[in-house]
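Colleagues,

For the teaching module next term, I've prepared a clean inverse folding example: a structure given as tokens, and then the sequence designed for it. I'd like students to try predicting residues themselves before seeing the answer, so please don't circulate the second half yet.
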């Protein structure tokens, strides 16, 4: 597990969980190259950057339904799974089932979508173009 938050998974003392804590951008990029998938069983986060980064790296992404639906063009690329905070065992079982039935692959469609949809420079150019058009309308 990478990152930090109000829940400390190190306190769980599980042999199958490695808690790596916060990482630099370079360290994160290396981790994305070393793993098979991103697992983000959260609710109410919208479309977090970690999903976009994982997609750009060609990873399979298993996330909550609300995150999977946040970018309608990516819905078919992501594995959206119901997350119920009141039923962690059921949520874990749904994620495990999805992972078990997915053939791991480098997802070139996800990487291509991420490059097109989430590129900072491209989005800045789109915003500049939109704002320039609004300035002409107000004059």
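(Answer key — instructors only)
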């Amino acid at each position: 597990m990478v990152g930090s938050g109000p829940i400390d998974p190190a306190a769980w003392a599980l042999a199958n969980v490695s808690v790596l804590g916060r990482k630099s951008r370079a360290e994160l990029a290396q981790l994305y190259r070393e793993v098979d998938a991103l697992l983000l069983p959260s609710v109410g986060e919208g479309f977090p950057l970690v999903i976009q980064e994982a997609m750009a790296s060609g990873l399979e992404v298993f996330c909550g339904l609300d995150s999977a639906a946040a970018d309608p063009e990516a819905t078919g690329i992501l594995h959206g799974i119901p997350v119920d905070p009141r039923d962690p065992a059921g949520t874990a079982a749904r994620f495990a089932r999805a992972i078990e039935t997915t053939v791991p692959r480098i997802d070139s469609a996800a990487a291509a979508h991420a490059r097109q949809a989430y590129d900072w420079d491209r989005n800045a150019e789109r915003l500049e173009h939109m704002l320039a058009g609004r300035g002409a309308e107000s004059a």
